């Protein structure tokens, strides 16, 4: 799945398949300017920062179990968000502090560092990397991902795929080649 935020005409947090199909709103109320987004892949939760409401909130992948992790002035100006174990990590764009927030107890907020000009944060750790299984977009014997001549996008599961073409090309009637 692909998760993303939108705060155009109607603010929301959405999800879709990697090929853009099955687009679903998972949060569309009591939300103003959702920006940074982070996933808890193990428990299937989506965390986001709303920079207008000064909140960090969480919801499950289906849009249920929503609650506010932390709200208020101390988290104003957040950008970037990452989740690892019991904590959320974020950057305060006003003073460039990296903050660690206990995702179960929002009163536990610590400033960890102040790097120059940080706007995004990521956690890289072996345990956070998903195991890769064989999937529909694996390279075939001819070197084509999923048998697609240009781009292979996973569909609703790891066995489904959709072929797409680079700009200026049209997908052929076989659904795999680009012309």
UniProtKB/TrEMBL annotation:
LDL-receptor class B repeats (start-end): 1-43, 44-87
InterPro entries, sorted: 6-blade_b-propeller_TolB-like, Cueball_EGF_LRP_Nidogen, LDLR_classB_rpt
UniProt GO MF annotations: Wnt receptor activity; Wnt-protein binding
GO cellular component, one term: plasma membrane
Gene3D superfamilies with a match to the protein in the record: TolB, C-terminal domain
GO biological process: canonical Wnt signaling pathway
Record-linked PROSITE patterns: LDLRB
PANTHER family: EGF-LIKE DOMAIN-CONTAINING PROTEIN, VITELLOGENIN RECEPTOR-LIKE PROTEIN-RELATED-RELATED
Stated name of the protein: LRP1B protein
Origin species: Stercorarius parasiticus
């Amino acid at each position: 799945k692909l998760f993303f935020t939108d705060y155009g005409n109607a603010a929301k947090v959405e999800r879709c398949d990697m090929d853009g199909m099955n687009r679903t709103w998972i949060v569309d109320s009591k939300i103003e300017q959702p920006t940074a987004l982070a996933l808890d892949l193990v428990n299937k939760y989506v965390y986001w920062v709303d920079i207008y409401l000064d909140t960090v909130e969480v919801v499950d992948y289906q849009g249920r179990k929503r609650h506010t992790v932390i709200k208020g002035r101390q988290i104003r100006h957040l950008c970037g968000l990452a989740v690892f174990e019991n904590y959320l990590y974020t950057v305060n764009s006003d003073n460039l502090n990296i903050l660690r927030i206990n995702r179960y107890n929002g009163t536990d907020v610590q400033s960890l560092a102040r790097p120059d000009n940080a706007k995004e944060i990521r956690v890289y750790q072996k345990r956070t990397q998903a195991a890769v299984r064989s999937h529909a977009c694996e390279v075939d014997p001819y070197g084509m991902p999923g048998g697609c001549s240009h781009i292979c996008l996973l569909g609703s599961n790891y066995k489904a795929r959709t072929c797409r073409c680079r700009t200026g090309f049209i997908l052929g009637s076989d659904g795999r080649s680009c012309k």
